């Protein structure tokens, strides 16, 4: 990459991180209170598929309000949650203090430059954040770097259609709602991203749930003009089946389907890493 291209790439990354900070500063409280984010059953399923040892040192990347971090702290020796934005970290720390959890801590940090040495953690997790990463391979590579050999990297995130035009339609209305959304990966791309980081997929589960559009827009405090455009796209999707999000109306209220994947991978010794295609 030329110096000019590298500089341009760097400026785009800075701009995107500013978008993330802006969005999650504004929506921190609503995001923390969202039923989908707080859903303890889904968090417990993430912990179950990760199956961490009791003495594990855990890193929660893009931890937001800390729901996942504090749940892992109930079953593991030590948990560190990192996030790019201060507002959700303040909510996480307040929750930690209220629950008197001593084996978790939170700090401001960037997922593409995780401030810990190689192999520092036994388990590295990331939930509902890959679709905000501007360079998922780099971020997942950082997660793998700070995980010990033989340790576990687990990701739970939105996934999009394997058909690029349908995936783009879905991601377009997600970006209207939240400008820090980059794109939800297709499941095959998520698997390839994991493999490219020297990780081997061990366990996988999928899930879906109906998402009420008005609550979805309220959580992110989407401006009225963008909210109207997102609604129009989803309503068109209901009629024409354009994204795989299968919109529907229930008692007159508009919903679409969130498709989720949870993947759990093991970090391979360097000598065992092959090519991922």
Tell me about this structure.
It contains eleven helices and eight strands. The protein has 277 residues and is of the alpha/beta class. Strands 1, 2, 3, 4, 5, 6, 7 and 8 form an eight-stranded mixed β-sheet that branches. The longest helix has 24 residues, at 3-26.
Structural class: alpha/beta
Beta-strand residue percentage: 15-25%
- At CATH level 2, the architecture is 3-Layer(aba) Sandwich
**Distance between the ends:** 22 Å
Number of helices: 11
- What string gives the helices and strands in order? HHHHEHEHEEHEHHEHHEE
Our Rg estimate from Cα atoms comes to 18 Å
Low-pLDDT segments: 1-10
CATH topology, by name, is Rossmann fold
The number of distinct β-strands equals 8
Helix coverage percent? 40-55%
Overall geometric form: globular
What is the H level of CATH, i.e. the homologous superfamily? Vaccinia Virus protein VP39
Biggest sheet descriptor: 8 strands, mixed
- Average pLDDT, to the nearest integer? 92
Any idea of the CATH class? Alpha Beta
How many structural domains can be distinguished in the coordinates?
1
Short key terms for the protein model shown above:
Rossmann fold, 8-stranded mixed sheet, alpha/beta, 277 residues
Short summary:
With 277 residues, this protein is of the alpha/beta class. The chain contains 11 helices and 8 strands.
